[in-house]
Structures are given as structure tokens and as C-alpha cells.
Model the fold of this input.
Amino acid sequence: MTISVQKRREIVDALRRGTVPRQGLDQFAVGMDRFVDAVDDELGSVKAGA
Done:
């Protein structure tokens, strides 16, 4: 995955300010695969009204 120079600057600038980047946060979300099934199950329960 390639991130543009502009996007990188926006992310780093936000982090320097101590804020969450408006876009590009997914670039930091690693190792989340193990939670996908659990989140899907929970969302299914919510959808079913449980």
C-alpha cells in the first residue's frame, strides 16, 4: 500500500498536535484480523435486537 506525501504529512501533523488523524487511521490498524469474527458476531446480535 502506498501513501501519498500529502496524506503522510496530514497524518504526522495530526499526531504532532496530539489529535487523531481525520483520515489514514487505518494505516495504523494492524493485527486486527483476530477480532473480525468477534465484531461480526456482536454486530449480528445488535442487528437481531439482542
